[in-house]
Amino acid sequence: QVQLVESGGGLVQAGGSLRLSCAASGRAFVGYVMAWFRQAAEKEREFVAAIRWSGGSPSYADSVKGRFTISRDNAKNTVYLQMNSLKPEDTAVYYCATRPFINIAPMPGQYPYWGQGTQVTVSS
Q1: What is the model's pLDDT at position 54?
Q2: Could you tell me how far CA 11 lies from the centroid of its own chain?
Q3: Are the C-beta atoms of 48 and 37 separated by less than 8 Å?
Q4: Do residues 99 and 110 touch, judged by C-beta distance below 8 A?
Q5: What DSSP letter does each residue of 50-107 carry, written as one string?
Q6: Which of 25, 57, 82, 84 is the most exposed place for a label (fewest CB within 10 A)?
Q7: What is the pLDDT of residues 96-115, one digit of tens each?
Q8: Pairing, β 118-123 against β 10-13
């Protein structure tokens, strides 16, 4: 059974940084894609970034390009989201998700496995 556990959220001032972690367990993730989504209050869940466990170029939403970096540690089965130059509009619950396909997908419905989410709040 696939389990995803996020950590690292919190309260930070605008311009600050946070690093989120997503620990994955339950199977081997070769051939899977790991992604981060976020959902702000009263808004739909949106794609943030994704990476393949097997390597290759990651994918980012335009709103976070140049500020966020997704990475993975295969030995630890952990994916990270380094968030720099944070803005108040980055405030949301951030979710880790995974899908058993090699291609990166931007829609939440394309990911069958999700973590519980971690709150990120950026104050102005």
Answers
A1: 86
A2: 17
A3: yes
A4: yes
A5: EEETT-S--EE-TTTTTTEEEEEEGGGTEEEEEE-S--GGG-EEEEEEEESSSS----
A6: 57
A7: 999 999 999 999 999 999 99
A8: parallel
